[in-house]
Amino acid sequence: MPNEALGNSSHWGLFTASVESDGLRVIPDADDPDPSALLGNIPASLDTRARILHPYVRRGWLNDGPGAGARGDDEFVEVTWDHALDLAARELERVRSTFGNTAIFGGSYGWASAGRFHHAQSQLHRFLNCLGGYTRSRHTYSHGASETLLPHVVGGLEPLYEPTTWQVMSEHTELFVCFGGIPAKNFQINAGGVSKHIVRGAIDVARDNGAEFVLISPLADDLELQPRDQWIPVNPASDTALMLALCWVLLDEKLWDKEFLDDHCAGTERFADYLCGRSDGVVKDARWAAQICGIDAATITALARRMASSRTMATTSWSLQRASFGEQPLWASIALAAFLGQIGLPGGGFGHGYGSTGGMGAAKLPYDLPTFRQGYNPVREFIPVARIADMLLHPGESYEFNGTTMNYPDTRLIYWAGGNPFHHHQDLGRLRHAFGQPETVIVHEPFWTATARHADIVFPVTTTLERNDIGCGRFDEAMVAMRQIASPVGESMNDYDVFSHLSKRLGVHEEFTENLDELGWLEKMYEQWRAVTPDQYRPREDFPQFWEKGRLDLRGAMAGHVMYQDFRNDPIAHPLATPSGLIEIVSDTIDDFGYDDCPPHPAWLSPPEVAGLGSGRYPLCLVANNPKTRLHSQLDHGAYSAASKVQGREPIRLHPDDAAARSINEGDVVLVRSETAQMLAGAVLDDNVARHVAQISTGAWYDYSAPNVADCVHGNPNVLAPDVGTSRLAEGSTGQLVRVQIERYDGDRAPVVVHDHHAWSRQQ
Ligand SMILES: Nc1nc2c(c(=O)[nH]1)N[C@H]1C(S)=C(S)[C@@H](COP(=O)(O)OP(=O)(O)OC[C@H]3O[C@@H](n4cnc5c(=O)[nH]c(N)nc54)[C@H](O)[C@@H]3O)O[C@H]1N2
Ligand SMILES: Nc1nc2c(c(=O)[nH]1)N[C@H]1C(S)=C(S)[C@@H](COP(=O)(O)OP(=O)(O)OC[C@H]3O[C@@H](n4cnc5c(=O)[nH]c(N)nc54)[C@H](O)[C@@H]3O)O[C@H]1N2
Ligand SMILES: [Mo]
Fold first, then answer.
1. Element housing 265 (H / E)
2. Is the Cβ–Cβ distance between 670 and 705 less than 8 Å?
3. Where is the Molybdopterin oxidoreductase N-terminal domain (predicted)?
4. 90 in helix, strand or coil?
5. Alpha helices in 74-161 (DSSP H)
6. Type and span of the H or E element at 16
């Protein structure tokens, strides 16, 4: 390959890279005002210790057939591509003809890599659709509770996909009240790419225009605090109580916008009865919330008054709903914003996920992007995404989801490409057991992740550095040529080529490939997109010109968008798509479901994550949030991620007083125990962490090489987190919070071997 610097894109930004004698050199894009430090992980893409270099088949499966042996603990046998492809094709054919396409689980949730063509899930889904379909998964780990709840309350997903923009807020918002913050670590990222990181700059402009920020979070660094800001440490999983009390103050002091509530909302009276204790005998006043939230009543009252006297944006991070009864804080925040009556005003109302990604609040393009079509999936079966282990362990059993009684399908074959369930799912011990159930597991991965280690057939695939693609995110104003920089590592192939080979063996080659190669597809996707893009925005450049130029600026982004403006101005002419056409503070639909874990209006249900905080066997609440130094588990072995580790383990932050009470010093290895499992981590003392709270990022690769020492010796918090849904309404993931105890660990020092496949194999 040439060693000139070529353009590329990642979920955390544009860069150019070149292969130098001492490794890959990565340079952030010159036009990015705030490039991400995560680019420092990219050279590790080519690290052969972590890469899968050949196709492999698990010994037990190869010798004794589907289902045999111990998935995850068995050794792998290197095979030729032809052999591996023959085995996979035969097995797919056997499962589909014997059990039907429903028996193939192809949900394959995960972020994969940037790039419109080599998007691993699209590749897999198109391939499986050519074969007659697959059982899919619905919604996300990011905001599964929101995706189910929002249509009931506001009639759609506008808060997630078309929120009021930063441009509007930086001009108009006087007070940002940020539940869960606007974490700078998170707005580095946007799915599909982010050519310009604009959020930090937008916050600066808002501040210059006089905006003030109130951070409500157990962690002080969920916002880059300035002297005028206020940090209100809150007990994890208690925000709903706080929001209810804020509503109560607004009601009690008649600061609520009665007119807005009357004209735009359904159920205010019943909700007010609940706030005042008329329905359950408990007044949700500031004193009540103070005990639950760990905030004094005067602070709550003062905050409510301040919110009522300012143009206020109340935003909840997605993390709030990734916990037990995760529907409640989001719903309560909408009720709170409705009480304030600023929904639909520029810079007022509620937001959900500002800062959760770099795209949230960036201007959206009013047209689609080039797409690799997935085709039609005739299989109707699906699961809410986080019910994967339940599905595998309980085939045929019924469960509730969003008002429907559903049955888990009987999975015989799992096919995963572009995700890492042994990163993203909860209770990984249970997931290992669940992955032991089906007859066959096929995984495409560049790296020896725990998911690859739980496969029977492992196909080594390329990273973006080793292929050509088109890069563009949905809130992005640039489309870039992602040019191949390096030769495929080992024997790895593009996902597309693996599926092309399989489709030939299965008789659907033409349907899957349309007889096009990589560049042929890029040209087709680009030209199809150009043809349907509205005239005024259509780029002049044809594909060869675009490819030569390397970059297009996309036009038309809706920088001045205000969410629900039309509805606010005229709710009769522009009703919401809810049964009442209004914001449903009370939902009769949800009422009819009769779920005690998701009542018909926002309610305090006392999540186990916060009940009895500071006492009992698991006195601490561990915040297992998204990582600062990587994207999920991706490139955990990269330089930037590796530099954060403590004695090679994932850092866990504790308040100095909580550490002192446990004789834990900075840099100690600690044992973290939950009801579910135990793991090792490396202690960091930090008073940015509230009392009785600890924090560890997700994404340390699951290292189960020394089960006599701990379930994970590296620090993947998903070994600890219980595998329960938010509620029967959404069945969303609850991985954000888990109750733990932490102690200094002076025992056997099992090394972390997970990033080096040779070291791992020796350990087995
Ligand atoms: N406890 C806890 N758990 C959580 C969360 C939490 O807050 N707390 N957050 C959750 C959230 S919001 C999310 S979105 C999930 C994220 O979960 P995932 O999206 O599953 O995590 P990633 O590490 O991004 O996994 C992507 C995988 O795809 C691989 N990959 C990259 N490019 C390619 C490619 O081109 N082809 C193929 N075949 N593979 C590729 C990568 O190597 C990586 O292993 O985690 C969830 N898990
Ligand atoms: N660097 C980086 N950025 C990322 C990602 C990544 O892996 N790395 N992942 C991306 C993805 S897929 C997603 S979905 C988003 C996730 O976006 P979020 O879900 O918003 O992100 P998290 O970091 O999990 O949580 C944000 C903060 O919420 C706070 N928090 C947790 N529980 C509570 C609570 O009960 N109450 C209050 N008030 N605060 C609480 C925590 O202190 C935490 O730091 O991030 C995206 N951005
Ligand atoms: Mo996510």
1. strand 265-266
2. no
3. 9-46
4. helix
5. 81-99, 120-130, 144-154, 158-161
6. strand 13-20
Convert the pLDDT of each residue in 674-712 to its tens digit: 999 999 999 999 999 999 999 999 999 999 999 999 999
Helices (H) and strands (E) counted in the chain, each on its own, are 26, 29
pLDDT digits (tens, 9 = 90+) for 461-500: 999 999 999 999 888 889 999 999 999 999 999 999 999 9
Measured in whole angstroms, the distance separating CA 743 from the mean position of its chain's CA atoms is: 30
Distances (CA, A) of 512 to 114, 125, 129, 504, 706: 21, 11, 9, 9, 43
Query: Of these residues, 12, 56, 61, 109, which one is catalytic?
Result: 109
The tokens describing 522, both together, are 């890029």
> Which helix (H) or strand (E) covers residue 288, if one does?
helix 286-293
Pairwise CA distance, residues 337 & 353, whole Å: 15
User: CA-CA distance, 340 to 422, in Å (whole number)?
Assistant: 42
Q: What is the DSSP string of 566-631?
A: HHHH-TTTS--SSTTSSEESS-HHHHHHT-TTS-SS------TTTTTTT-SSS-EEEEEE--SSSB
DSSP 8-state code for residue 202 = H
The rounded distance, in Å, linking the Cα atoms of 387 and 410 is 13
User: What are 247-277's pLDDT values in tens digits?
Assistant: 999 999 999 999 999 999 999 999 999 999 9
Identify the burial level of 235 via C-beta atoms within 10 angstroms of its C-beta, where 0-12 means exposed, 13-18 middle and 19 or more buried. Answer: buried
Q: Is the pLDDT of residue 749 over 90?
A: no
Cα(236)–Cα(257) distance, integer angstroms: 29
- For the question of residue 109 being annotated catalytic, the response is yes
Q: Could you tell me what percent of the chain has a pLDDT over 70?
A: 100
Q: CB of 10 closer than 6 A to ligand 1?
A: no
Q: Which H/E stretch holds residue 636?
A: none
Residue 145's Cβ-side half-sphere holds a number of Cα atoms within 13 Å equal to 29
Helix boundaries (H) for 100-231? 120-130, 144-154, 158-161, 166-172, 199-208
91-101 burial, b at 16+ Cβ within 10 Å, e below that, comes to: bbeebbeebbb
Instruction: Give the binding-site residues of ligand 2, using a 6 Å CB cut-off.
Output: 142, 179-181, 183, 185-186, 188-189, 216-219, 222, 234, 236-237, 239, 317-320, 323, 356-357, 623, 625-628, 631-632, 736-737
Structure tokens at 287: 């004193």
pTM: 0.98
Separation CA 666–CA 692 (nearest Å): 17
Name residue 652's beta-bridge partners: 683, 696
Pairing of strands 669-673, 583-584: unpaired
Helix, strand or coil, per DSSP, at residue 679: strand
Query: Which tens digits make up the pLDDT trace of 16-32?
Result: 999 998 899 999 999 99
Rounded distance between C-alpha atoms, residue 224 and residue 159, angstroms:
23
Q: Is the pLDDT of residue 2 over 60?
A: no
Q: Provide the CA 576 distance to its chain's centre, in angstroms.
A: 27
Q: Give the integer Cα–Cα distance in Å for 588 and 577.
A: 14
Residue type, 338: A
Q: How many CB atoms lie within 10 A of CB 81?
A: 16
Length of the chain: 764
> In 418-522, which ranges are E strands?
440-445, 457-460, 469-471, 478-482
Rounded distance between C-alpha atoms, residue 359 and residue 349, angstroms: 19
Instruction: Give the CA diameter of the chain.
Output: 74
Retrieve residue 147's tokens. 């995706």
From 143, 324, 634, the mutation candidate for ligand 1 (largest count of ligand atoms within 8 A of CB) is 634
Q: Report the distance separating Cα 602 and Cα 150, nearest Å.
A: 12
Closest CA to 348 of 171, 601, 151, 210: 171
| Residue from 113, 185, 186 to probe ligand 2 pocket by mutation (most atoms less than 8 Å from CB) | 186
